[in-house]
Known about the structure:
Layout: H1 3-17, H2 22-26, E1 33-42, E2 47-56, E3 59-65, E4 70-73, H3 76-86, H4 89-96, H5 98-114, H6 131-135
Antiparallel strand pairs: 1-2, 2-3, 3-4
Amino acid sequence: xxxxxxxxxxxxxxxxxxxxxxxxxxxxxxxxxxxxxxxxxxxxxxxxxxxxxxxxxxxxxxxxxxxxxxxxxxxxxxxxxxxxxxxxxxxxxxxxxxxxxxxxxxxxxxxxxxxxxxxxxxxxxxxxxxxxxxxx
Length: 136
């Protein structure tokens, strides 16, 4: 079993048993880094916003916003990272193109499954109103 699985199993056991705050000090060596990419569609693909967030230990330290066109630091460390990444013009051009490459491309691929299939099953089987969220 890998270290990550052992740490996860230990964390679940401690939470389930209601471990005291002293156990938190023992788990302080477990860190998590996460990157989230989001596409926000307004009026179909008429206006698209791409946001990429970099998170370390549940704290966002830097993010890219396509409306701004640059990385923005959210913490002192993130500001240093943003300056470094923003200084590379080739990398920034690649990141700015992510709106077309990632968001609009995936929108075209997923539209038939998300939008156009809605009425295929027949009106009697497609729920409306609040039940829509629970059944689909």
